[in-house]
């Protein structure tokens, strides 16, 4: 009787109807309800401030007139984009923005990595924390303060650096008004302000490196440089690739506030970028549709750069962003 009972129970369990997809979803929601509740504010933020405003993209395809409103304004298709691409200023904007983005990748992107590697080599905990706090502070400064400090140090009328150079070389440099100095000045400000803050992610990645690998390398007689090259860098390689992919998404995003504060009539030819141009034509001239088209163009290029960089990273054997 026992084998028959077992067989009946087995056949009953096999014929039991499967739980529907909605029932499975409801079960998971009940199980993770507190985690979902904690995630609700973040989800609401992205929904309200990131996804709902995407409806405004349609403005780039209209000839928006405030007295007609969003829905009654004339639909012009890609006319705004054609006008922008044919405008002689497009080449200048693309060159200025591209060069600043290239300087950012070449000079700023490696800076937090190098600083994180240097901080990781400090063995005295108190000294390490002091240095970390010191390099984090500029991140919390407003760009207005950074621009003011730059002016006080670099102006030809009593600037500290210019006065020192005048005493040493007998000449003053037009750092704030020269076109040749504008891009180095912008990248220097960015490195000084954000380099320390950028080390947080890399220091967290370095904290997860297996210490036994260093011990084994020391036993094998590896120098500190060899340990850095063969253990530390490969361990954080994935983090570096992901940060690089995300950075490429902001390749054309050069920071409106910083450029606006540091530009003037003498360096305008090299200082005008997409962000400041959107402000110029959109806010000061009232060409809302045209400025929306410029902003959308910049966003599309950012998406293309992210997808392309992620594809190349995966082709090279790395995990990539997705």
What does this 3D model show about the protein?
With 322 residues, the protein is an all-alpha fold. It has one domain (80-315): MetI-like (MetI-like fold). It is built from 18 helices and 2 strands. The protein has helices at 2-14, 21-31, 33-51, 69-72, 79-86, 89-108, 110-120, 125-136, 143-154, 160-169, 179-207, 211-219, 224-235, 237-248, 256-262, 268-271, 274-284, 288-315; strands spanning 62-63, 74-75. The chain has a two-stranded antiparallel sheet with strand order 1-2. The chain is flat, with a radius of gyration of 28 Å. The model has no long low-confidence stretch (mean pLDDT 87).
Query: Which spans have pLDDT < 50 for at least 5 consecutive residues?
Result: none
Strand order in the largest sheet: 1-2
The CATH homologous superfamily is termed: MetI-like
Mean pLDDT value: 87
CATH topology: MetI-like fold
User: What is the H/E order?
Assistant: HHHEHEHHHHHHHHHHHHHH
Q: Which percent band covers the strand fraction?
A: under 5%
* Sheet with most strands: 2 strands, antiparallel
Please, how many domains?
A: 1
Structural class: mainly alpha
Quickly list its features.
322 residues, two-stranded antiparallel ribbon, MetI-like fold
Brief synopsis:
The chain contains 18 helices and two strands. It is an all-alpha fold and 322 residues long. The chain has one domain: Orthogonal Bundle (MetI-like fold).
Write the layout of secondary structure elements.
Layout: H1 2-14, H2 21-31, H3 33-51, E1 62-63, H4 69-72, E2 74-75, H5 79-86, H6 89-108, H7 110-120, H8 125-136, H9 143-154, H10 160-169, H11 179-207, H12 211-219, H13 224-235, H14 237-248, H15 256-262, H16 268-271, H17 274-284, H18 288-315
Antiparallel strand pairs: 1-2
């Amino acid at each position: 009787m026992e084998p028959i009972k077992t067989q009946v129970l087995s056949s009953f369990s096999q014929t039991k109807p499967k739980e529907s997809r909605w029932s499975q979803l409801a079960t998971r929601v009940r199980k993770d309800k507190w985690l979902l509740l904690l995630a609700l504010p973040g989800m609401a933020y992205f929904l309200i401030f990131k996804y709902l405003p995407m409806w405004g993209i349609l403005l780039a395809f209209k000839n928006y007139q405030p007295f007609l409103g969003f829905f009654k304004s004339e639909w012009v298709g890609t006319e705004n984009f054609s006008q922008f691409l044919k405008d002689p200023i497009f080449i200048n904007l693309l060159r200025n923005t591209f060069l600043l983005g290239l300087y950012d990748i070449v000079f700023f992107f490696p800076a937090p990595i190098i600083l994180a590697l240097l901080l990781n080599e400090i063995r005295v905990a108190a000294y390490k924390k002091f240095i970390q706090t010191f390099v984090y502070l500029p991140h919390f400064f407003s760009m207005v303060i950074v621009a003011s400090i730059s002016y006080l140090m670099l102006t030809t009328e009593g600037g500290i650096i210019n006065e020192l150079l005048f005493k040493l070389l007998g000449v003053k440099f037009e750092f704030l008004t020269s076109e040749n100095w504008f891009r180095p000045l912008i990248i220097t400000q960015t490195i000084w302000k954000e380099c320390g803050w950028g080390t947080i992610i890399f220091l967290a990645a370095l904290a997860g490196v297996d210490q036994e690998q260093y011990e084994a390398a020391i036993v094998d007689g590896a120098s500190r440089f060899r340990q850095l090259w063969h253990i530390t860098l490969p361990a954080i390689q994935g983090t570096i690739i992901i940060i690089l992919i995300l950075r490429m998404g902001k390749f054309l995003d050069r920071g409106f506030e910083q450029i606006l504060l540091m530009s003037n009539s003498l360096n305008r030819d090299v200082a005008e970028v997409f962000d400041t141009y959107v402000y110029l034509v959109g806010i000061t001239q009232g060409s809302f549709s045209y400025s929306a088209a410029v902003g959308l163009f910049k966003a599309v290029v950012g998406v293309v750069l992210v997808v392309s960089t992620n594809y190349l990273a995966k082709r090279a054997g790395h995990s990539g962003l997705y």
